[in-house]
Amino acid sequence: MNAEQLIDTRSAFDSVADAYDGPLGNNALVQAVRARTLAEVRRRVPPGAALLDLGCGTGLDAAALAQQGYRVTAIDWSPEMVRRTEDRAARGGLERMLAVHRLGIHELDRLPADDFDAAYSDLGSLNCVPDLGVAALAIAGRLRPQGTLIASVIGRVCPWELALFSVKRQWHAARRRAAKRAVAVPLNGRTVWTSYYSPAEFRSAFGRAGFGLRSLRSLGLLAPPPYMDAFAQRHHRAVAMLQALEDRVAGWPGLRRWGDHFLIVMQRRG
């Protein structure tokens, strides 16, 4: 991913910031991913801990955790997303618990010096960095020894997407997650450059940066991916049943490697 692609991605998210708390960025399927990611943060890290939010968007996650007693530092590459997060913190009286910086993950070296107990990344922010290995090293440098990373990452094998594109005979789209380079994903008439990773690829990049695997599960294995919100609304009972079944099997070996996203927990060694 080059500098021009980074600017394309920033422009795309700037363009949707004012609408991102609605169905585009926070529909019921997105909320399911968000809820499971935040539940893992709460399970792994006690209130009062210092957290680094990697790609905060409009600040929904950061504000929720700050309200529960976590000290959150949130960063995002999009100025408009940062503005929304700052507004949310001010409205909630959270300025003492939530600090916001207009920085991309690739600019972590510019963040004021601090050590964090944990970092988290929700809904694929780490899929939009120029180099995952470089990002892993930068994140490791911001975590205390034994610090935790919790990330929901867009994966390579989404059964719903493969079925959808195959039925439509859109073979090129069906293969897009197999690409070795960043892929142009449309958003509001603009482009989000997205790199897809398998759990093994993600684990390898962070393993080289000194992280070990703690847990892995699938997200969006049986439940449809977030962009199928209209379908989910029409079939909400069936989707609820699929989500409940997914929660039972999402950690099984084999199955946990598939899904629209995967939820991975890694711990810095040392």
Key features of this structure:
globular, 270 residues, alpha/beta, Rossmann fold, seven-stranded mixed β-sheet
* Sequence of secondary-structure elements: HHHEHEHEEHEHHEEHEHHE
| Total E-strand runs | 9
Give the count of structural domains.
1
CATH 2nd-level architecture: 3-Layer(aba) Sandwich
Tell me the major beta sheet.
7 strands, mixed
The CATH class turns out to be Alpha Beta
Low-confidence stretches: none
Helix content: 40-55%
Distance between the amino and carboxyl termini: 31 Å
Tell me, what's the shape? globular
Describe this structure in words.
α6 (132-142) packs across α9. The chain has helices at residues 3-16, 23-26, 28-44, 60-67, 79-91, 132-142, 159-167, 171-174, 199-208, 229-234, 236-249, and strands spanning 50-54, 71-76, 98-102, 116-121, 143-154, 183-187, 190-194, 211-219, 261-268. The radius of gyration is 18 Å and the shape is globular. The chain is built from 11 helices and 9 strands. By secondary structure, it is an alpha/beta fold. The chain has one domain: Rossmann fold, CATH 3.40.50.150. A 7-stranded mixed sheet has the order 3-2-1-4-5-9-8, sandwiched between helices. The chain has a two-stranded antiparallel sheet with strand order 6-7.
